From TrEMBL:
Classification lineage: Bacteria, Pseudomonadati, Pseudomonadota, Gammaproteobacteria, Pseudomonadales
Source species, domain of life: Bacteria
Descriptive protein name: Uncharacterized protein
């Protein structure tokens, strides 16, 4: 039974670097609350319960609820106002859980899955508002191109990562596949080998690669910008694939530039046919993707045209035309590039003009020897006019393209998986086919940041926070919303002092928020407060002879811990091969196979049960004790029942005999013993000591028939861990038909 449970925010991790078999795990640590385990049995036609374990949960030793699912079935989505969410309760078409749920705070895998599923069934009734995990939030942007609608998460194995001994063994990447608004869904690679590993081996050791598909770049960035230019429509560009390349180009199919010399007066003329070029003539006018960007080119083959020039003495005379040849050349190039730049505090991808040139020429390359110098000069004068016109035309083409440009707020897509602003430092942009930006997952901390951002502090302890990104910091501390109790103090330097251990004893934990403020900048840190610098899990447990049980401990600063069993006759402390990897330290308690006989003056109860004390201590002598009640196998016909008596609990010892289903065990042969608890215990009545730090008592009742060792019953009385009324209610008996 879990009471007053407080769970930390879920944390994502990924398993199995495989496109097909990757898994996602969401882990929620239990940072506060109480755990009480009961064992149920049927005696005298009634169900009876007995407490077998108590635990106080906190941020050091709290167990976890773990959600795991195949990435292929897990669903992530982008909700209202850019919220990126993962639903922790997901069902398939048959109404079955997609996730497998485990609770780590129990001994066997069967118990972990069963209790985890029970908690999931409970969470299923809570509604989406409580079971939707906000992974992150897309920052606001005016970028209408990169508006993600759906995304999927997969893992991908590095080449050779499956080969043990290879340097890449076990390596893999988390890959997000993103569909933009208005786009159709794509498909995932069938196997790892079907997709290039996106983090290339290099001295840079890149940890991030943002890849924008060429279709998206062409259709949503390049082409729309080009089509804004007025004359582009007249050129009727066609989208074609570049021969021998996976790139594409826009090729003009209409339009052109034309001129002619048509000068004729009564005694002189200079004529040419129309000369110029069609945009579609090879090499055609085109926009081509190359050089990490786009290049506009207009460089047709030179155009040669023959003209005539002549001068006559009289209008009645025929024209004595002499031939000449003109050569027209045009070379216009505008280069657009993609590059990373910083706008404000964010990195963006900028698409803009990098360079341009426009060169034209109309040259006289041949003239009949009989063409006079005056006639040649006339031709040159005309060519000067047409040269100016052609150059102006070419310059206007280039100038009309200068305003083409776009800014892609692409790096905000990292917010689909990571919280915060600049979570990636871009390093290298290339456009071999798709646009790829390699970089590093290394936040640029330009805002106010306090460290540590999440920490555990023991009662009465202190910690000094550090702030970066601003000066003149104002510090404050408050309880988490909905929680109360002493919150501690923080001074002007950022030194926080936790409330006393006594103030934390009843609940075992508390959470507070430290806030640093500098002008309009705010940063917060979460503090989990615990009673002692050393915490243990569980606090007390019942273990049968010869069995093993996992024990967990941790220290606020993760200092090394020492484990000591006070009475080596009752068992041993061993390494725990099944230790929860999220816990700092853990051991197996291995109970002895027999109990030592009671010594002179020791209670007969020692025949059937003994209290083993496992002490866990740190180098500064902080210590906690785990109480382990080691018991022999019980007779199924002896048990204890409880009822409230004043401020305490009255226990009654019962048994079943051959003739009587339920009777009190004879008082004269009953031996009561208290192993733990600073209250009074007499004839089965336990009365807690007022104001005591003890949270429970451990007692047994033993029937002495002069021969048997198993006529006994034990009880962990969790008062004031819970109230006496609540305890008796939990043990409530029910008739069994």
């Amino acid at each position: 039974m879990l009471m007053g449970l407080t769970l930390d925010r879920p944390r994502l991790s990924f398993e199995n670097a495989s496109i097909q078999h990757g898994r996602v795990a969401a882990t929620m640590r239990m940072v506060g609350g109480k755990q009480l385990q009961l064992k149920e049995s049927v005696l005298a036609g009634e169900t009876h319960k007995v407490v077998t374990r108590l635990s106080t949960l906190n941020a050091i030793v709290g167990p976890s609820l773990i959600f795991t699912a195949d990435l292929a079935t897990s669903q992530s989505s982008i909700g209202d106002e850019g919220a990126v969410v993962l639903k922790l309760i997901q069902l398939n078409e048959n109404g079955e859980f997609i996730y497998q749920y485990k609770f780590t705070g129990v001994e066997t895998e069967f118990e972990r899955i069963r209790l985890g599923t029970h908690l999931a069934e409970l969470m299923k009734t809570w509604g989406d508002e409580l079971t939707t995990l906000p992974l992150s939030e897309l920052r606001e942007s005016e970028d209408s191109v990169l508006e993600p609608a759906r995304f999927g998460i997969r893992t991908h194995a590095e080449h050779n990562s499956a080969k043990r001994g290879d340097p890449a063994f076990g390596e893999g990447a988390v890959v997000l596949f993103i569909a933009m608004k208005g786009d159709k869904n794509g498909s995932y690679p069938h196997e790892d080998k079907d997709m290039l590993y996106m983090l290339p081996s290099s001295a840079e050791k890149f940890t991030s690669n943002l890849i924008l598909a060429q279709d998206l770049i062409y259709n949503k960035v390049i082409f729309p910008e080009i089509n804004k230019v007025p004359w582009v429509a007249d050129a009727k560009f066609e989208d074609r694939e570049i021969p021998g390349s996976r790139h594409r180009e826009l090729v003009a199919t209409a339009g052109g530039w034309w001129a002619r010399i048509n000068h004729e007066v009564p005694l002189f003329r200079c004529l040419t046919p129309a000369f110029g070029f069609n945009y579609a003539d090879e090499p055609a006018m085109r926009f081509r993707v190359e050089r990490n960007g786009v290049v506009f080119k207009l460089n047709p083959d030179p155009v040669f045209v023959d003209g005539v020039v002549g001068h006559r003495e009289h209008t009645a005379n025929p024209w004595p035309d002499r031939k000449f040849t003109l050569k027209t050349t045009v070379d216009v190039e505008v280069v657009f590039s993609f590059k990373v730049k910083v706008e404000g505090e964010n990195s963006v991808i900028d698409f803009s003009v990098q360079s341009q040139r426009s060169n034209t020429a109309i040259e006289l390359v041949y003239a009949d020897p009989k063409v006079t110098p005056n006639q040649i000069q006339f031709i040159y004068d005309y060519l000067k006019f047409y040269r100016q016109g052609l150059q102006a035309y070419a310059t206007s083409l280039a100038a009309s393209l200068v305003d083409i440009g776009a800014t892609l707020d692409a790096f905000r897509l990292n917010n689909l998986l990571f919280k915060g602003g600049n979570v990636v430092t871009p390093v290298n942009l290339n456009m071999p086919t798709d646009l790829t930006v390699l970089g590093h997952l290394s936040p640029q901390r330009t805002d106010l940041v306090i460290e540590p951002s999440e920490v555990v502090v023991a009662g009465g302890g202190s910690l000094t926070f550090k702030a970066s990104g601003a000066s003149d910091i104002k510090w404050s501390v408050d309880n988490v919303d909905g929680e109360e109790g002493e919150k501690g103090d923080i001074d002007l330097s950022g030194k926080y002092t936790a409330p006393s251990a006594d103030s934390l004893r009843a609940s075992g934990f508390r959470r507070v928020i430290v806030t640093a403020t500098a002008g309009d900048k705010v940063s917060k840190a979460m503090l989990s407060l615990v009673e002692s610098s050393v915490s243990v899990y569980p606090s007390v447990v019942v273990v049968s002879l010869g069995s093993k049980y996992s024990l967990v401990a941790g220290e606020v600063d993760k200092k090394a811990l020492t484990w000591t069993l006070k009475d080596q006759n009752l068992g041993a402390i061993e390494e725990d091969p099944d230790k929860d990897p999220t816990m700092q330290d853990g051991r197996k308690f291995v109970a002895a196979k027999t109990l030592p006989a009671p010594g002179a003056g020791e209670p007969l109860n020692f025949i059937s049960s003994r209290l083993a004390e496992v002490e866990v201590s740190s180098a500064d002598n902080s210590k906690r004790t785990i109480d382990v009640l080691v018991v022999v196998d019980q007779s199924g016909s002896y048990w204890l029942e409880a009822e409230v008596s004043g401020t305490g609990v009255q226990l009654t010892f019962y048994r079943t005999t051959r003739t009587v289903p339920k009777e009190k065990v004879p008082a004269a042969a009953t031996h009561w013993h208290k192993y733990k608890g600073d209250g009074t215990f007499e004839n089965g009545l336990y009365t807690p000591k007022a104001g005591s730090a003890e949270q429970y008592a451990i007692v047994t009742a033993f029937y002495d028939d002069g021969d048997s060792v198993d006529r006994f019953a034990y009880m962990i009385i969790p008062v004031p861990f819970v109230s006496s009324q609540r305890f008796v209610q939990l043990l409530g008996t029910e008739k069994v038909n």
